[in-house]
Amino acid sequence: MSQARRSDPPAEPDQRAAATMRGFALLMARTTSWLYEVGTWIFGGLIGFSLLLVSALLTVGPIDTAILVSVTTLGCALPLDIAAISVLRLAKDSREVGMWMDELALQSLKDAGFPDIESYFPPASEREDQRHRREFVTIAFAAGIAPLSFALSLTGLVAALWYMAWWIGVAVLIVAVVSAVLVVLALVHAQPPESPAQKEQWRRYSESRRWQRQGGH
Question: Which positions ≥6 away from 95 have C-beta within 8 Å?
Fold first, then answer.
């Protein structure tokens, strides 16, 4: 009897994983509009910043390596920012209209009197799942571009200031790193402390994962 008890799993990791994925999907669905707004604002600001700095550096000319590095990195950041803001804007407009291109095509063919058009398109539930997937892919695409764009823009700024004096570029780089660390710390400390029930759930989940890795022995 004791041996059988030891072989029983302490929890159901598959059920927890499925519940976690459902919760994450609901969170994405409820925050998508906000993420679109924030992403558009961020990438729009980066585009304006890059254009302003590049236009000023072009009047200086390629007189120093720091200027060349600055113009190169800012120029490389611009296409990334434009691509990200374009995708976010198209996705946001499609969401506000209430349909994606396939849904728009379906409705247009319906209005045109195309016979039995529903049979050529997936059911409404599948179209909704596809819409959520597209929104997730769009936000993931923008989130993947953001770190690279930030790095290129920061490099361009530091290089431009380095041309004036090397210590200015170093100071700005240090302050940028400290600011990022402060933002992360603020987000971490803003989270509410875990309750005893949450700690117990995490403990049971860790035990279930350890039991699963050991093959149930």
Answer: 32, 33, 36, 135
